[in-house]
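BUG: 3D viewer hangs when loading the predicted structure for this chain

Environment: internal workstation, default settings.
Expected: structure renders.
Actual: progress bar stalls at 90%.

Input used:
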Amino acid sequence: MSVSDSCKPIELTYSFSAQEIKLLAKFFRKASLPDGLEKFRDKIFKSIYESMTLDQAESFFKD
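Structure tokens produced before the viewer hung:
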């Protein structure tokens, strides 16, 4: 893949299960994130925060 190819948007359709979202959120909290995945990480976090109360989210990320 050339550098110019990496700038083109690629559409990917995938429906994540609730468990997959939770696993990704915990992974993103602990792992070093490669440049360019910030928007994906932020969408994962947003879905967690929108599906839980503040107390539930704090408890979730403590584990």
